Amino acid sequence: MEPTASVTSSTVNLVKTIVGAGLFAIPFAFKNDGILVGILLIMLAAVTSGFGLFILAKCSKTLINPRNASFFSICMLTYPSLSPLFDLAMIVQCFGVGLSYLVLMGDIFPSLFGGNRDYWIVASAFIVVPLCCLKKLDNLKYSSILGNIALIYLALFIFGVFVKDILIEGNTFARGEISWIRIYDGKGLLSTFSIIIFAYVGAMNLFSICRELENDSMENILKVINGSIGISSIFFLLVGISGYLTFGSNVQGNIILNYDPNSIWIYLGKFCLAFMLLLSFPLLFHPLRIAVNNLVVWFGMTFGADDTCAVPSTTQETDEDDTTPTPIQLSISEEEMEANPEIELDIEEGLSQTVTTAEDTTDVQAEVSSDHDEEDINFPDSRFYLITGILLTSMYLLALNVKSFALVLALVGATGSTSISFTLPGLFGYKLIGTDSLAIGRMISRRDRFYKRCSLLLVWFGLGVTFLSLYVTLFGGAGTN
């Protein structure tokens, strides 16, 4: 598939991946944290999540063909024995959140139009299934635009009520206590810390976004990352501050529940929320399907079960009719190649490759590009639709039979979200950043050394968030009213 995505469409998709139903829990986080601490936590989440996305993008550029980068391919280069665990973390995250979206749709649509929740869950399949069958993430840009319009309406509605009721009319009778600087609830701070941190999860689609960019330069990728984090932060701050200042300590876990349910505006808002969930589901399903396919390929590699699960061979030479992909390799710039016509790359984990000229590198890039349409592994159409069918069927059956799984979803966030947002990017960055310099006998630059240290800090930050979130989930913390 030819890369055709623009910076704008990629930013739209990444914003929609990041900003979901968790947006409406941000005012509750401000209730426990206070305005100052809440803003500081949003800034912390934005910086750490943005840095994690940046590290993933930078790691992709260490490959000869960055468009082949994926969690699976980089895992196989850095920590091959742990690759299935990393994909399992992706599956847990995307499957759990996607399932919660189906359950929420079953709760919201009956309150809008009547009818049985099961009916509406099944009815959603008429929109969800066709969108989930699209192979390119960029094909979802129009649904993401509609979803973002729904988000904008909801954010402006919450802000508009604040301006009208509080700033203009001064109606504070429904508002509880406001905490500007001090922490309102110390125990609640531990609980709501994870709400804000998990709100920025979007790493699952970064590699697909990078792969589909028409111009996948690091400059363009940074525009997508910075733009998405910036726009998402505006959403979180606008809804969090204005929602909290409207209701104070009376704000509920989902701020939509604070408004008059008979209001036509809140009725429209609920419709926008349900519509947003409907269009967000395919964005989570895309990386879920890729992760499942990665596990299938890994089992095929390990147990030799299926020839279609072939992965890159360990040699560059292939026959003309051989379509076996080339191995993952570190990239060397043309200037370095010209200055060093004979470069021996002896990369960790036994991956080695001799590159003689820049022209040879270009040829290898072209061959790898032609052999990979979806990931740096085979993904035939038959398996694509089989995995799609099995996943959608299982998710819909669970959604029809499960009314609430708050504990499971909290555990998913504590493990899956932190793994793909912080721990994995940090591990990849610490292992890969600077290896392209070492491969040609040069010292790692000061900037790359700084990125490596920050990557290690990101790993510890991710582990800390994981243990804190698990502790709060299993042993206490504030609940949502």
Give the overall shape, derived from the CA principal axes.
globular
Main beta sheet strand tally, sense and closure: 2 strands, antiparallel
Give the CATH class: Mainly Alpha
Number of strands: 2
- Rg over CA atoms, rounded to whole Å, is 23 Å
Instruction: Report, as a whole number of angstroms, the end-to-end distance.
Output: 48 Å
Number of helices: 17
Query: What is the string of SSEs from the N terminus onward?
Result: HHHHHHHHHHHHEEHHHHH
SSE layout:
Elements: H1 7-18, H2 26-33, H3 35-60, H4 71-78, H5 83-113, H6 117-132, H7 141-168, H8 186-198, H9 206-212, H10 218-247, H11 264-303, H12 334-339, E1 343-346, E2 352-355, H13 358-371, H14 381-401, H15 406-432, H16 435-438, H17 446-475
Antiparallel strand pairs: 1-2
